[in-house]
Amino acid sequence: MDFYNELEKYKNIVENELKKVLNELDLPQQEIVESMRYSLLSGGKRLRPILLIKSCELFGGNIKSAIKLSIAMEMIHTYSLIHDDLPAMDDDDYRRGQLTNHKVYDESIAILAGDSLLNYAYELMIDEVIANDYSKKYVDAMNIIAKSSGYKGMIGGQVVDIISEKKQIDDKTLNFIHKYKTSKLIEASIIAGSIIGGANTQEINTLKKYSEYIGISFQIKDDILDIVGDKNILGKDIGSDIDKKKSTYVSIYGMERAKSDLNMYKEKAVNIMRKFESDESFFFIDLAEYLTKRVN
Asked: What PROSITE patterns has UniProt attached to this entry (predicted)?
Protein backbone atom coordinates (compact mmCIF):
# COMPACT_ATOMS: atom_id res chain seq x y z
CA MET A 1 0.00 0.00 0.00
CA ASP A 2 1.33 3.41 -0.99
CA PHE A 3 0.37 5.64 1.93
CA TYR A 4 0.14 8.92 0.02
CA ASN A 5 -1.99 7.42 -2.75
CA GLU A 6 -4.23 5.86 -0.09
CA LEU A 7 -4.51 9.18 1.75
CA GLU A 8 -5.42 11.01 -1.46
CA LYS A 9 -7.93 8.32 -2.42
CA TYR A 10 -9.82 8.64 0.85
CA LYS A 11 -9.55 12.41 0.87
CA ASN A 12 -11.25 12.46 -2.55
CA ILE A 13 -14.00 10.16 -1.25
CA VAL A 14 -14.65 12.53 1.64
CA GLU A 15 -14.53 15.61 -0.61
CA ASN A 16 -17.08 14.11 -3.00
CA GLU A 17 -19.45 13.30 -0.13
CA LEU A 18 -19.08 16.79 1.34
CA LYS A 19 -20.00 18.34 -2.02
CA LYS A 20 -23.28 16.42 -1.99
CA VAL A 21 -24.51 18.12 1.18
CA LEU A 22 -25.79 21.67 1.60
CA ASN A 23 -27.07 21.98 -1.95
CA GLU A 24 -30.35 23.69 -1.11
CA LEU A 25 -30.99 26.67 -3.36
CA ASP A 26 -33.35 29.67 -3.35
CA LEU A 27 -33.97 29.60 0.39
CA PRO A 28 -34.67 32.74 2.40
CA GLN A 29 -31.72 31.71 4.59
CA GLN A 30 -29.48 30.96 1.59
CA GLU A 31 -26.65 33.09 2.96
CA ILE A 32 -26.14 30.69 5.88
CA VAL A 33 -25.90 27.76 3.45
CA GLU A 34 -23.26 29.63 1.44
CA SER A 35 -21.34 30.46 4.61
CA MET A 36 -21.44 26.83 5.75
CA ARG A 37 -20.23 25.60 2.36
CA TYR A 38 -17.52 28.27 2.21
CA SER A 39 -15.72 26.80 5.21
CA LEU A 40 -16.74 23.17 4.79
CA LEU A 41 -15.38 23.01 1.22
CA SER A 42 -12.26 25.10 1.81
CA GLY A 43 -9.90 22.14 1.66
CA GLY A 44 -7.83 20.80 4.51
CA LYS A 45 -6.36 17.39 5.27
CA ARG A 46 -9.75 15.75 6.07
CA LEU A 47 -7.81 13.81 8.70
CA ARG A 48 -10.70 13.10 11.06
CA PRO A 49 -13.18 11.65 8.55
CA ILE A 50 -10.39 9.58 6.96
CA LEU A 51 -9.43 8.22 10.37
CA LEU A 52 -13.04 7.29 11.07
CA ILE A 53 -13.34 5.38 7.81
CA LYS A 54 -9.95 3.67 8.06
CA SER A 55 -10.47 2.60 11.68
CA CYS A 56 -13.78 1.07 10.63
CA GLU A 57 -11.98 -0.84 7.86
CA LEU A 58 -9.30 -1.93 10.34
CA PHE A 59 -11.91 -4.25 11.88
CA GLY A 60 -13.59 -5.43 8.69
CA GLY A 61 -16.06 -2.60 8.14
CA ASN A 62 -16.47 -0.67 4.90
CA ILE A 63 -16.70 2.89 3.65
CA LYS A 64 -20.47 2.80 3.22
CA SER A 65 -21.04 1.95 6.89
CA ALA A 66 -18.79 4.81 8.09
CA ILE A 67 -19.20 7.61 5.54
CA LYS A 68 -22.13 9.48 7.11
CA LEU A 69 -20.54 9.70 10.54
CA SER A 70 -17.25 10.72 8.94
CA ILE A 71 -18.98 13.63 7.18
CA ALA A 72 -20.63 14.61 10.46
CA MET A 73 -17.22 14.59 12.12
CA GLU A 74 -15.81 16.95 9.49
CA MET A 75 -18.76 19.29 10.03
CA ILE A 76 -18.04 19.36 13.78
CA HIS A 77 -14.37 20.06 13.09
CA THR A 78 -15.24 22.84 10.62
CA TYR A 79 -17.68 24.48 13.04
CA SER A 80 -14.91 24.55 15.66
CA LEU A 81 -12.54 26.25 13.21
CA ILE A 82 -15.10 28.91 12.25
CA HIS A 83 -15.66 29.77 15.90
CA ASP A 84 -11.95 29.50 16.75
CA ASP A 85 -11.16 32.19 14.15
CA LEU A 86 -13.68 34.70 15.55
CA PRO A 87 -12.44 37.97 17.12
CA ALA A 88 -13.66 36.83 20.54
CA MET A 89 -11.40 33.79 20.33
CA ASP A 90 -8.21 33.55 18.21
CA ASP A 91 -9.12 36.50 15.95
CA ASP A 92 -7.56 35.10 12.75
CA ASP A 93 -7.95 36.62 9.31
CA TYR A 94 -6.90 33.62 7.24
CA ARG A 95 -7.58 29.90 7.31
CA ARG A 96 -6.25 27.45 4.69
CA GLY A 97 -5.03 30.34 2.55
CA GLN A 98 -8.35 32.17 2.31
CA LEU A 99 -10.17 34.75 4.37
CA THR A 100 -11.81 33.35 7.48
CA ASN A 101 -15.58 32.97 7.49
CA HIS A 102 -16.34 36.06 9.56
CA LYS A 103 -14.19 38.19 7.24
CA VAL A 104 -16.38 37.18 4.29
CA TYR A 105 -19.85 36.84 5.83
CA ASP A 106 -19.53 38.95 9.00
CA GLU A 107 -19.40 37.74 12.59
CA SER A 108 -23.10 37.08 13.13
CA ILE A 109 -23.42 34.86 10.06
CA ALA A 110 -20.14 33.08 10.91
CA ILE A 111 -21.39 32.26 14.40
CA LEU A 112 -24.65 30.91 13.00
CA ALA A 113 -22.80 28.98 10.27
CA GLY A 114 -20.75 27.22 12.95
CA ASP A 115 -23.89 26.51 14.97
CA SER A 116 -25.64 25.18 11.87
CA LEU A 117 -22.78 22.83 10.96
CA LEU A 118 -22.76 21.42 14.49
CA ASN A 119 -26.52 20.93 14.42
CA TYR A 120 -26.47 19.39 10.94
CA ALA A 121 -23.78 16.94 12.07
CA TYR A 122 -26.17 15.60 14.69
CA GLU A 123 -28.98 15.42 12.13
CA LEU A 124 -26.78 13.25 9.92
CA MET A 125 -25.75 10.99 12.78
CA ILE A 126 -29.32 10.55 14.03
CA ASP A 127 -30.47 9.74 10.48
CA GLU A 128 -27.74 7.09 10.30
CA VAL A 129 -28.78 5.59 13.64
CA ILE A 130 -32.38 5.34 12.37
CA ALA A 131 -31.26 3.95 8.99
CA ASN A 132 -29.41 1.18 10.82
CA ASP A 133 -32.43 0.20 12.94
CA TYR A 134 -31.10 1.91 16.06
CA SER A 135 -28.07 -0.38 16.08
CA LYS A 136 -26.21 -0.11 19.39
CA LYS A 137 -22.86 0.33 17.70
CA TYR A 138 -24.10 3.43 15.85
CA VAL A 139 -25.61 4.83 19.03
CA ASP A 140 -22.33 4.18 20.87
CA ALA A 141 -20.29 5.77 18.06
CA MET A 142 -22.50 8.87 18.08
CA ASN A 143 -22.24 9.05 21.86
CA ILE A 144 -18.42 9.04 21.66
CA ILE A 145 -18.45 11.85 19.10
CA ALA A 146 -20.92 13.90 21.16
CA LYS A 147 -18.96 13.61 24.41
CA SER A 148 -15.63 14.29 22.71
CA SER A 149 -16.99 17.47 21.10
CA GLY A 150 -18.50 19.07 24.20
CA TYR A 151 -17.34 20.66 27.42
CA LYS A 152 -15.84 17.38 28.60
CA GLY A 153 -13.88 17.20 25.36
CA MET A 154 -12.82 19.69 22.67
CA ILE A 155 -14.72 22.67 24.08
CA GLY A 156 -13.22 22.01 27.50
CA GLY A 157 -9.76 22.20 25.96
CA GLN A 158 -10.65 25.42 24.15
CA VAL A 159 -11.85 26.98 27.40
CA VAL A 160 -8.63 26.20 29.26
CA ASP A 161 -6.65 27.44 26.24
CA ILE A 162 -8.51 30.77 26.30
CA ILE A 163 -8.24 31.38 30.04
CA SER A 164 -4.55 30.47 29.93
CA GLU A 165 -3.63 33.21 27.42
CA LYS A 166 -0.98 35.66 28.65
CA LYS A 167 -0.33 33.41 31.68
CA GLN A 168 2.53 31.17 32.65
CA ILE A 169 1.06 27.67 32.77
CA ASP A 170 2.57 24.39 33.90
CA ASP A 171 3.06 21.29 31.80
CA LYS A 172 -0.03 19.64 33.31
CA THR A 173 -2.24 22.47 32.02
CA LEU A 174 -0.57 22.41 28.61
CA ASN A 175 -1.06 18.66 28.35
CA PHE A 176 -4.75 19.11 29.22
CA ILE A 177 -5.15 21.67 26.43
CA HIS A 178 -3.44 19.42 23.90
CA LYS A 179 -5.30 16.30 24.97
CA TYR A 180 -8.73 17.90 24.91
CA LYS A 181 -8.60 20.72 22.37
CA THR A 182 -6.78 18.72 19.70
CA SER A 183 -6.67 15.03 20.59
CA LYS A 184 -10.31 14.45 21.54
CA LEU A 185 -11.77 14.78 18.04
CA ILE A 186 -8.97 12.65 16.63
CA GLU A 187 -9.66 10.04 19.29
CA ALA A 188 -13.41 10.23 18.68
CA SER A 189 -12.89 9.65 14.96
CA ILE A 190 -10.78 6.54 15.51
CA ILE A 191 -12.92 5.08 18.30
CA ALA A 192 -16.24 5.76 16.55
CA GLY A 193 -14.96 4.11 13.38
CA SER A 194 -13.60 1.11 15.27
CA ILE A 195 -16.93 0.65 17.08
CA ILE A 196 -18.82 0.61 13.77
CA GLY A 197 -16.25 -1.83 12.39
CA GLY A 198 -16.78 -4.21 15.31
CA ALA A 199 -13.74 -3.73 17.55
CA ASN A 200 -13.82 -5.29 21.01
CA THR A 201 -13.18 -3.46 24.28
CA GLN A 202 -9.49 -4.35 24.44
CA GLU A 203 -8.90 -3.19 20.87
CA ILE A 204 -10.74 0.06 21.54
CA ASN A 205 -8.65 0.75 24.65
CA THR A 206 -5.46 0.12 22.66
CA LEU A 207 -6.59 2.54 19.96
CA LYS A 208 -7.31 5.20 22.59
CA LYS A 209 -3.61 5.26 23.45
CA TYR A 210 -2.67 5.48 19.77
CA SER A 211 -5.15 8.33 19.34
CA GLU A 212 -3.72 10.20 22.31
CA TYR A 213 -0.17 9.89 21.05
CA ILE A 214 -0.87 11.06 17.50
CA GLY A 215 -3.13 13.82 18.82
CA ILE A 216 -0.36 15.18 21.05
CA SER A 217 2.23 14.85 18.30
CA PHE A 218 -0.15 16.66 15.93
CA GLN A 219 -0.36 19.63 18.31
CA ILE A 220 3.39 19.68 19.00
CA LYS A 221 3.97 19.82 15.25
CA ASP A 222 1.48 22.69 14.98
CA ASP A 223 3.39 24.57 17.70
CA ILE A 224 6.65 24.02 15.84
CA LEU A 225 5.18 25.11 12.51
CA ASP A 226 3.84 28.30 14.11
CA ILE A 227 7.48 29.33 14.50
CA VAL A 228 9.33 27.77 11.57
CA GLY A 229 6.54 27.11 9.06
CA ASP A 230 5.98 28.76 5.67
CA LYS A 231 2.99 31.11 5.64
CA ASN A 232 2.25 30.32 1.98
CA ILE A 233 2.13 26.59 2.72
CA LEU A 234 0.32 26.85 6.06
CA GLY A 235 -2.26 29.25 4.67
CA LYS A 236 -2.20 31.43 7.79
CA ASP A 237 0.10 33.85 9.58
CA ILE A 238 3.22 32.55 11.29
CA GLY A 239 3.95 33.50 14.90
CA SER A 240 0.34 34.08 15.92
CA ASP A 241 0.80 32.11 19.17
CA ILE A 242 3.75 34.31 20.14
CA ASP A 243 1.81 37.47 19.31
CA LYS A 244 -1.05 36.33 21.54
CA LYS A 245 1.37 35.27 24.29
CA LYS A 246 0.03 31.73 24.26
CA SER A 247 1.88 28.99 26.07
CA THR A 248 2.88 26.27 23.60
CA TYR A 249 5.02 23.17 23.69
CA VAL A 250 7.89 25.16 22.24
CA SER A 251 7.56 28.12 24.63
CA ILE A 252 7.52 25.84 27.67
CA TYR A 253 10.04 23.16 26.67
CA GLY A 254 12.07 24.79 23.89
CA MET A 255 12.43 23.77 20.23
CA GLU A 256 14.85 20.87 20.75
CA ARG A 257 12.69 19.23 23.43
CA ALA A 258 9.61 19.77 21.26
CA LYS A 259 11.24 17.99 18.32
CA SER A 260 12.48 15.18 20.56
CA ASP A 261 9.08 14.63 22.17
CA LEU A 262 7.38 14.80 18.78
CA ASN A 263 9.48 11.83 17.69
CA MET A 264 8.89 10.04 21.01
CA TYR A 265 5.10 10.22 20.72
CA LYS A 266 5.31 9.12 17.11
CA GLU A 267 7.32 6.04 18.09
CA LYS A 268 4.82 5.21 20.84
CA ALA A 269 1.98 5.41 18.32
CA VAL A 270 3.83 3.23 15.81
CA ASN A 271 4.62 0.57 18.42
CA ILE A 272 0.95 0.37 19.42
CA MET A 273 -0.24 -0.18 15.86
CA ARG A 274 2.28 -2.98 15.36
CA LYS A 275 0.16 -5.02 17.78
CA PHE A 276 -2.57 -5.29 15.14
CA GLU A 277 -2.22 -8.04 12.55
CA SER A 278 -4.50 -6.48 9.94
CA ASP A 279 -2.87 -5.06 6.80
CA GLU A 280 -4.93 -1.92 7.43
CA SER A 281 -2.71 -1.18 10.45
CA PHE A 282 0.12 -0.13 8.12
CA PHE A 283 -1.89 2.94 7.16
CA PHE A 284 -1.94 4.06 10.80
CA ILE A 285 1.78 3.38 11.19
CA ASP A 286 2.55 5.48 8.10
CA LEU A 287 0.12 8.15 9.29
CA ALA A 288 2.08 8.62 12.52
CA GLU A 289 5.22 9.19 10.44
CA TYR A 290 3.39 11.56 8.07
CA LEU A 291 2.01 13.74 10.88
CA THR A 292 5.51 14.39 12.25
CA LYS A 293 6.88 15.37 8.84
CA ARG A 294 4.02 17.47 7.52
CA VAL A 295 4.56 21.10 6.51
CA ASN A 296 0.99 22.30 6.97
From this structure: POLYPRENYL_SYNTHASE_1, POLYPRENYL_SYNTHASE_2
Residue-wise pLDDT for 72-108, tens only, equals: 999 999 999 999 999 999 899 999 889 999 999 999 9
Whether 238 has a pLDDT exceeding 80, the answer reads no
Q: In the chain, where are the structural domains located? A: 3-293
Of the candidate CATH numbers 1.20.1600.10, 3.40.640.10, 1.10.600.10, 1.25.40.10, the domain formed by 3-293 belongs to: 1.10.600.10
Rounded Cα distance, 246 and 242, in Å: 6
Q: pLDDT at position 228, please?
A: 82
Task: Give the bridge partners for 95, in sequence order.
Answer: 98
Q: Which residues contact residue 268 at a Cβ distance below 8 angstroms, ignoring those fewer than 6 apart?
A: 209, 213
Which pTM does this prediction carry? 0.93
- Mean pLDDT value across residues 100-129: 97
* pLDDT > 90? residue 229: no
Q: How far apart are CA 90 and CA 204, in angstroms?
A: 34
